[in-house]
């Protein structure tokens, strides 16, 4: 790892003042579970690292009548274990609690999770000069792409969006509080993620001198759930993920205002519009949930090695809808 200077500001303002107007030379540090990996792999070689760990303001969780605000410095473990978050947003608590393993969840922060870099093996290999470094080719497009996007959405880089919290927050209608030298602003979570297509671009829409301060989630009484299809039960990413939310939809009641968001299938979280239309105003049963799952694959264009993900999308959407509706998870029998 290249040597770097370490800064530990006590306020967000101090942190902002240490940042630069391009990524690379100075990087923010949350729990370090992604940044330090990238440094050790020589993919990221900052000269200055600005830790957010000493900023008390980033550690709070405020539960108000109309919205919940979670500080960007909260660990994933503390989010998954928080009693009010578990009650209001089971999708979020479950997703946070399924990430990696306990060691990672005790270090990793909410802000770092949303801003983490993608896990494409070509990008992570220091010897591979892909599109996101100074190269001009996405090697996964015609190479080893079994974990990559099936909805490429015109993106030249086919890595999948890495955060499993992102799709859940979109389903819950959250916003991200961002601060820079000009002050604070709210970014709707649906506009937060961005497909990187060139050197210097990130998986989010923030500038290099922006700090994620908190996430706000409206309290709207939404029924919500999250389901991941995994190869291993811990210490890995899911292969496909579905986050769902709706009004009603329990005890045979119809589901309305349905949102279905997929993770691990596209360069940004994928809002499954056809699936949402398929289940809107329906009671959730095995049949209607399965139909929504099938609709969720509409528009997919798998790469050479990942057509298998289409079946997993069907399964993830069906099971997430059934979980949210309160049905007994037959797959755990
Ligand atoms: C084995 C393994 C399995 C994993 N499985 C999953 C999974 O299933 N789902 C999933 O979502 N993730 C998974 N992860 C990734 C893990 O969740 C992330 O590494 C972690 O969430 C990053 O958080 P951090 O605080 O450690 O970020 P850091 O490593 O500190 O930072 C990550 C990036 O975010 C930037 N950053 C950090 N905080 C802020 C902020 N407040 N504002 C702006 N920028 C900021 C940093 O500059 C850096 O670029 C896995 C990781 C491993 C190693």
Task: Write up what this structure looks like.
With 333 residues, this protein is α+β, with helices and mostly antiparallel strands. It has one domain: Uridine Diphospho-n-acetylenolpyruvylglucosamine Reductase, domain 3. 27% of the residues lie in helices and 21% in strands. It is built from twelve helices and 13 strands. The protein has a five-stranded antiparallel sheet. Strands 9, 10, 11, 12 and 13 form a five-stranded antiparallel sheet that branches. A three-stranded parallel sheet has the order 1-3-2, with no helix packed on it. A hairpin with a 5-residue loop joins strand 10 (240-248) and strand 11. Helix 11 (286-295) runs antiparallel to helix 12 (309-325). The protein is globular, with a radius of gyration of 19 Å. The relative contact order is 0.13. The mean pLDDT is 97. It binds flavin-adenine dinucleotide (FAD). Flavin-adenine dinucleotide binds next to strand 2, helix 6, helix 7 and strand 8.
Which stretches are low in confidence, meaning pLDDT under 50 for 5 or more residues running? none
Largest sheet properties: 5 strands, antiparallel
| Global structural class | alpha+beta
The average pLDDT value, as a whole number, equals: 97
Structure summary, number of beta strands:
13
Instruction: Write the element-wise H/E pattern from the N-terminal end onward.
Output: EHEHEEEHHHHHHHEEEEEEEHEHH
Count of alpha and pi helical runs: 12
CATH fold-level topology: Uridine Diphospho-n-acetylenolpyruvylglucosamine Reductase, domain 3
Radius of gyration: 19 Å
């Amino acid at each position: 790892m290249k040597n770097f200077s370490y800064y530990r500001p006590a306020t967000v303002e101090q942190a902002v003042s240490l940042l630069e107007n391009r990524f690379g030379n100075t990087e923010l540090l949350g729990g370090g579970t992604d940044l330090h990996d990238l440094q050790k792999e020589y993919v990221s070689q900052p000269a200055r690292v600005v830790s957010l760990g000493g900023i008390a303001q980033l550690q709070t969780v405020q539960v108000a009548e109309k919205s919940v605000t979670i500080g960007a410095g909260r660990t994933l473990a503390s989010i998954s274990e928080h009693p009010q978050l578990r009650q209001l947003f089971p999708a979020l608590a479950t997703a946070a609690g399924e990430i990696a393993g306990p060691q990672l969840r005790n270090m990793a922060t909410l802000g770092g999770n949303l801003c983490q870099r993608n896990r494409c093996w070509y990008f992570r290999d220091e010897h591979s000069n892909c599109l996101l470094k100074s190269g001009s080719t996405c090697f996964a497009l015609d190479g080893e792409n079994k974990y990559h996007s099936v909805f490429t959405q015109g993106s030249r880089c086919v890595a999948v969006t890495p955060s499993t919290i992102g799709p859940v927050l979109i389903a819950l209608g959250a916003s991200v509080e961002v601060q820079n030298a000009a002050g604070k602003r709210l970014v709707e979570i649906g506009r937060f993620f961005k497909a990187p297509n060139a050197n210097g671009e990130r998986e989010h829409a923030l500038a290099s001198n922006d700090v994620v301060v908190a996430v706000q989630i409206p309290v709207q009484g939404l029924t919500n759930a999250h389901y991941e299809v995994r190869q291993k039960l811990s210490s890995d990413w899911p292969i496909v993920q579905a986050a769902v939310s709706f009004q009603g939809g329990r005890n045979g009641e119809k589901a309305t205002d349905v949102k279905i968001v997929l993770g691990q299938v596209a360069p940004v979280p994928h809002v499954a519009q056809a699936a949402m239309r398929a289940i809107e105003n329906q009671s959730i049963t095995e049949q209607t949930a399965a139909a929504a799952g099938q609709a969720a694959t509409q528009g997919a264009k798998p790469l050479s090695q990942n057509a298998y993900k289409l079946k997993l999308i069907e399964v993830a959407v069906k099971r997430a809808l059934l979980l949210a509706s309160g049905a007994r998870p037959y797959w755990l029998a």
